[in-house]
Amino acid sequence: MRGRALTLALTGLLAPLAPTAPAHAAPAAAAPYDFNGDGRADLAVGAPDATVNGRSKAGAVSVVYGGSAGLKTATRTLITQNTAGIPGTTEAGDAFGSAVASADLDQDGYADLLVGAPGEDVNGDTNDGMAVVVWGGKSGLSGGREVLKHWPRDVDRYGQALAVADLDHDGDLDVAIGSTGSVSLTFVNGPVTRSGAWQSLGDSGSTLGSGYSLAYGATSLTSVNATAARPTGLVTHGRQPGTGRAITDLVPDTAVGNYSDWLQHLPAGTVSATGDIDRDGYADVVVGSPAEPSADPAGAKGGKVTVVYGGPDGKSTTRLPLVLGQDTPGVPGAAETGDEFGAGVSLGDVDGDGFPDLAVGAPGEDAGAGAVTVLYGSASGLTTRKAASFGQNTAGVPGTSEKGDRFGARVVLADHSGDHRAELTVAAPGENAGDGAVWSLRGSASGTVTSGALSFGPAVTGVATAGAPHLGAALGG
Length: 477
Hints:
Strands 3-2-1-30 form a four-stranded antiparallel β-sheet, with no helix packed on it. 3% of the residues lie in helices and 33% in strands. The protein is mainly β. The chain has helices at 365-368, 431-434, 458-461, and strands spanning 43-47, 60-67, 70-79, 99-103, 112-117, 130-135, 142-146, 156-165, 174-180, 185-188, 205-206, 220-224, 233-239, 246-251, 264-266, 271-275, 284-289, 304-308, 310-311, 314-315, 322-324, 344-348, 357-362, 371-376, 383-390, 410-414, 423-428, 437-441, 454-456, 474-476.
């Protein structure tokens, strides 16, 4: 039932007040993925199928830090469940790194990293799942803590999706964790600290309503305006029972106190990105739907993306959604069956004009070689003006386009250099027979450029190539 799907009343496990030292100004909260607090976004690259100490598909995450020239592959941190201070033990099939998310959870001026391991076996429960937080600091990431699991008997594959948002409007960031089972979405109340008791949200579990299949659960989550300074919401993705068709909803920041009809339906898709594309003060949602109509009636030939513009109560009530595919005038390429346009989406300001731009991955393009399209934001919203497409056969992009690379399966637009222009980071988890690889293309006043493009694979990040690790199957920055 939706009626009691979510109660965001803080029950709190509050310690008694005690005398404190004189107050000092708290450090400003770091932006997501700025793990060392230098003002540049770092990149988290998941390889959930990586072999670790001979254990197949145990999983790993490699973090490459930003620098004045962009990503610095010489400065990176490899994180597995064998890393000192990381909860759990490396086991075959853990799939550590299947999902990543980031925020300055303890508000110490350094962003922290959330990692999902949905294949983790817990107390004999196969694929019970686990989520951990890895702490940021001046020297980067180190140490961690397992995230509380409110309903261990009612979830499986806990950590298959992750997001951070201030869901109860108290100024602290809360963690949303997707899973399968009778509880498909769990909320863990912030602040998330390095030690001490966890806080509690009243009815912290949700089945997301009868429209969501419990077998799939919450397959992907995206936060809306996730900052400590303002209320936030959440975009949820899943599958319909029986048909397996995609379903997408918006949990608006007005959900607190509204215990019925708290989901706003969005166009169906498997992934999303959020940002204020037209800078009107309301968050917009881009939904990627890579499915063909034969697989999902909500799909489109070659895939599509839909921009849902925001309004005071979530979705705009005055502006129609914008639907874009490769047959849309001004969008490069042509819609072909299997292109999977919309499999990866990300928003960031590539050209520094203050309007978020959109990267769209089409990993099925050219028999699975893959491609990425960049579209630009403006005061009127997303436009096709100066739209451009990139692949491994584009001049200046390292490598060679090959069938099965799946270039564009994951995309990120983030400012890794600190020049206020987002780099385009692209993952191709199928590169080199499943080794996987990552590319970074610089932003400029004219848009994404290929000069000085960077590419790296598992060897550079410390991930073993045994057994096809699929580097880049998850990407965050």
